[in-house]
Queue: 3 jobs
Job 1
Amino acid sequence: MPSSSLDRAMFGMFSTHALHLADKHGVFTQLMAGGPATPAAVAAARRIDEETLERLLVVLASVSVLERGTDGTYRVADGLSPFFDTESPRYIGGFVRHLVTNTTGRLEQLDDYLTRGKAVVDADLPAPFDVIYHDEEATREFLEAMWNLSFGVSEELAGLAGLDGVRDLVDVGGASGAFAVAALARYPELNVTVFDLPAVGPFLENTRREQGLHDRLGFAPGDFFRDPLPAAECLSFGYILSDWDDKTCVDLLRKAYDACTSGGRVLLMERLFDEDGGPLATAAMNLSMHVETQGRHRTAAEYQGLLREAGFGECTTHRSTWDKHLIVGRKA
């Protein structure tokens, strides 16, 4: 018989799809609002097929996302409700949808990579962000996934960054503003400018309006490969360097060094590998980076090495209670 670890490796794709469909069709919302319920009751309330739903619920219970009672009812497992609550900063639905609708299909490229090499295969493919931002709907889906992935932890990372007294921060590749919003909420004297591709502008404007941030949250359109970065006391990169190879990262960090005022700092916010190659989420997303971008995940020591090569010193690592952490470099 296969071990439980082998079972998880073989059948993980089923639980991911079950998670996505249960979120998409409001199953978690129903269970959280109405309490434990049978598949028949949930199916009737959500107007979905009972037999298919029951099979999905069995899968989710087998991976402890749901708990099944002796009376045949299901409930969301203790501690997981925030991850399925669309109003919670921990909500993961948008990110799971991205995994299912985008990442899963692209994993087929790995076979080609193994036989021909990534450089050869990618030479025939469009650039990563030409795919991600190829139209408004694709841009919206990606930015929603990034918000789900980033906003909750950003509240903690903003605290770890210690930005008291900092007046200006430029969030490089800041998307629709997850870290910017968290930082602005914590530091009332701070102003943030998101620097990102022009296609992101309308989505950042929606965030500014919805969050009531008015003049404190700005947008600077540009391409960080072609344009200089806006000057600031602090520049931040959240899930940016993991998109690129080491040389490109150092080039970007040198631009950040030039834009950073004397005595300022740069913040890197990334998943981090442990020395033993874990955790699983980082290892899995490292594989995702291989097919969706040109980058990889790294250890804290590797990120500190990139910072030092770009000229930054006093490099420190600050670990959060989530799976995204903070590395800080200072400009002398």
Note: Residues 4-82 form a domain with the Arc Repressor Mutant, subunit A fold (CATH 1.10.10.10).
Job 2
Amino acid sequence: MSHCSANHILSNFNDMSIKQISNNFLEELKFDEEIDSWPLMKTPWPILSILAVYWLFVVKVGPKWMEKRKPFNLKYIMMIYNLSQLLFNGYMLWRVYKPDVINSLWKHRCSLDEEDHSEKRFVYITANEIVWLYIMNKISDLLDTVFFVLRKKESHVTFLHLFHHMDMSFSMWIYLRIIKDQFIVLLGSINMIVHMIMYSYYFLASLGPKMQKYLWWKIYLTRLQIAQFVFVIIYLGSLYTVDCSFPKIFTIYMITHIALFLYMFIIFYKKTYQKTKSE
């Protein structure tokens, strides 16, 4: 076989692969007038504007503005914020695990039953309502970084921190705008549990130095976050291997992102806790 023929075959193969992937992706897209009319969902500009303002403030404007100012005392604001985030995640978790919701979600975790239109619509709308609430929660999570800047804790504003917050907000927006499936809600509930524990820790820490002796379990919180990523990757990978009618292109996207989070969290864990042990 000539060199030109081999290149031609390879080129055709690549074209077919790209075309197949594009076709599969287009088949997975879902649009719903009701859901697409919800706040922030019609176009990407609102969420992108929020993330752009967030990035500019925490990276450029905020640190420059605080340069010659004393750190703000945000103790009580942070107590309220952490408690509200704890309750917010608790409310979403309650929505997921209401008996009628969790039973339907589990029944249709792999696909929606076309024969029962009323239950199908109930699962579909309820799941996506929870995802919308989840997006609002990810947006409110951005205040965490704003507080770091106002308290002059710029060392906490790491690439991992910024990437995690911004990526989760926009990825979930993409999911709700063009994917709209029910399978991700059960996975999201795991993240809600982790965040309830995390904001419980932050709330206790915001009470002041007298609480530090009771916060020895911070290392286990980070381990729990890492374990969460491992579980989600395994679960998504198992779904990919079975005959489910869930969006497989988006699932690959999610596995890639979560694997990146896992890698960065492991690096953070090693730098933070192994360094502490060696000192």
Note: Residues 38 and 132 are 8 Å apart (CA to CA).
Job 3
Amino acid sequence: MKRTSRDIRRANRNELLRYVIAQSPVSRQELAAATGLSLATVANLVGELLERGVLVEVGFEDSDGGRPRGLVAMKADGGALIGVDVAETYIHVELFDLALRLLARAEEPLSASVNRPEQVVGHIASGVRTVLADAGVDAGLVFGVGVSMPGQVEREGGLSVFAPNWNWHEVPLRELLAEQLQFPIYLDNPLMACTVAELWFGAARGCDDVVVVNLGTGVGAGIAVAGSLYRGASNTAGEWGHTTLVLDGRACHCGAMGCVEAYVGSLGIINTLREVDPDSALLHADQTAAIDALAEALAKGEAAAVETVKRTARYLGVAVGNLVNLLNPQVIVLSSWVAARLGDALLTGMREAVAEHALPRPLEHTRIMLCPIATNPVSLGAATFALEGALAPSRS
């Protein structure tokens, strides 16, 4: 894809912001050295961000006998950002200041009977109002709301194109949200959101080639190439969960058979548990409760749980081995709630299976790890989309 001057400027600005957020306060000279941008480009970008009220001058540092260097930092109290993680079983809303520091969070449950568009929109709006009230933040300070939706999303049109677990098709989500929320709304999907979070704040900082494996009810792989998100032609790159793992295997929500998601998504793991022990007491009707019970039983060493996670890790390892061979990434991060619940046991077994199925040379250069971000990575990534969107020049 040809990059325009607008794309390059946005990428440069994001790189600069990532560094300022991590290292504040910093000088323009330090920013130029750290980002590889020219001092003139850095000065131009810093000037723009100072004018927008995103950065602030915070004093000077000595410069080995030369003129003191001016320092800049994020103007944390200059605004607020909201990130929303909409999953099949919950809506998680987080409020951040401009330095992406968490101010408040709220969560609202979803279920199989509460997933119509108007219901989901109502829960999102309720969560946004809750975090603003809890933090005592004036709505006028909000730069925007980033909303991560499961499935396929059209960012520009604000559409939920296809959410297979809810059977949504072409839902005008941004339009529906705008009826209840008077903020700019930036729509994307969790693969993009969690990958941005890792690039800005997590295991992928400083890396160019990255894969973030999102393990929840849905499954996918967020991809960054040369330090930037790889979106594909229609913003649907990363649907690795709907690649075939087992020929003529289990039915998947997408309509195909044998998909990765049908084996390593939460419902797939529950089906594996059912195969291991059809009468298991861990087989709760609610998938979140079932995975929680599985994790607790795993910690106690219960045989059915150990075998279920062992099989799941093997399925996951084969599929991740394909990613290693195909993309040759520097780091693969396991993210989202299923990975967090099953933790090191899943990671260890998966690494063993990857070693059996990936080619030695690409695997030698790939780190595989759990997401290190303490807060919700999808909400954090969605909030960065709101920051990027607020700083983007008008297309008019």
Note: The longest strand covers residues 90-97.
